[in-house]
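Methods: example folding runs. The two proteins below were folded one after another, and each record is reproduced exactly as written to the output file, sequence line first and structure-token line second.
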Amino acid sequence: MPLTLAVADTILRQALAHARSASFKPLSVVVLDQRAAVVAAASEDGTSLRRFEVAQGKALGALAFNLGSRRLATMAAERPHFFAGVAHSVGAVVPGAGGVLIKDSEGTVLGAVGISGDTSDNDEAAALAGIAAAGLVGDGG
């Protein structure tokens, strides 16, 4: 099942609704399909500069390594030289919570959502809420 625009839009809108209900700082949200193409993206009024790129980097890293970006942050701390090489050769991979794999009920990866703007834990919570609202499974690592 591909990640449709309608599903990606639900993830995005529900992630932002969760953030507003919890009084998070303004967020940027990027939803990528399994080939890392942007399906939906939005930045709330008041997000700080470059949040979109950070959100996209969290989602891209999750897809590239097939791991949530929380796990990538742990790996980056354990293997800093490897991740320095990844950043140099691959580019925008951001190892910090807030990049969550989007899976169907059978565990197939459909894409990833990346969020940036508040604490990494809150970014991840918003992503997981959006994914759950779409009836899918989030894997933040």
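Second run, written to the same file directly after the first:
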Amino acid sequence: MRKNNQAKKPAKGCFSRRKFINIASSAGLYGFMMKGASVAGITGSFRLPAPSEINDKNTNLIGAYGEWAARKMDARLPSHSFRNDQWRNLEAWQPSARKLTAERLAAPDLGSMPEVSVNKQYTYDGLHIEELSWPLPYGRPAEALLLKPSGSRSPLPGILAFHDHAANKYFGKRKITRTAAESHPVMEAHQRDYYDGLAWANEIAKKGYVVLVSDAFPFASRRVMLQDVPAHLRNGLTDDEPENPANIDAYNEWAARHEHIMAKSLFSAGTTWPGVFLAEDKIALDILCARSDVDTARIGCGGLSGGGMRTVFMAGLDPRIKCAVCVGFMTTWKDLVLYTSVMHTWMTYVPLLPNELDFPEILGLSVPLPVFVINASDDPLFTLQGMEDADAVLGEVYRKANAPDKYKCSFYPGGHKFGAEMQKDAFDWFDRWLK
């Protein structure tokens, strides 16, 4: 394991904390933080806490109940943690832990791979680009972009690239791609703030990969349309002029407030939000693996924040993923319980699973396959202690599996982003294990 944890000062070009708040910048940040919106429709609002408040060990999010909740979690290791002495054999532990995790996720059955439509093909900036879509059993068809080097002939390794959350459900795949010299001004700002102005899916495709980026549930083509919900939930909004920045802002604030309704409805339907992500991401992986230009023995996945969360579940539960890079979404359940759940989307949680696996151990289900965790030392979405504790957990899992060289964790200066230096290191990791 290699670890870079020296710098704590914000990196040059890292956006300010005020700007972070104003643009609702966290890829996992729950929408009630956006522009002073109220807490999921509850009267009043919470401001974004200062780093010193997040790391204040004398207070916690649930007051007098925090010590009890933490003590409950500290009493023993989760039952299916590979760190437990009862689990001595990787071959016995891994199938059991994956089976239990899949049961907790309760992912919906989406049936066989759908028919994929190629709606448009063209070349941009040295890349062959395909605009794809496919139907799913619910909602509107999923749309995706496929990118690969123009003129490439032999089968190439594949990357399932996950877009972020960023309290912006109007956009999905466009957050990490570029298909023309000019893009939507909201996406210009988004890529500048989170990715140092780079479309990272394009950048890794240029290095010799077939990259698939699909809209996640419920983003972009998969978003909840206002016309489809009761009038009393719409706040007078419509789906008219969808590309207007003012309407995009209004939709995103509405969608943030709608998250608690969606989450409770999914739980009531017998599934979970991560389970829906996993089901739809598996379909995308089916589609990527079915292509003749992809080497199915060399498939990776990765993404920032909301995309990092999807990486955790996908890499942990689908053995077709041979290498993973999780950016800006690594902590422990205890850190969420006490200090940071207020910062995060409803999309994160799986009832009962914390009794059986700590959060980093979900990604650890992939051991001994290579994983790289990228953290930012001043990321306001997590405590530094929570990120370091997660690193210790994964390091122990990989050491016990006799695969310490397959795990890497690095800390970079600055806030919540997947900047140019991080991207270079991530791409080197993919190259190391997939080429």
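Comment on the second run: DSSP finds 13 helices and nine strands in the chain.
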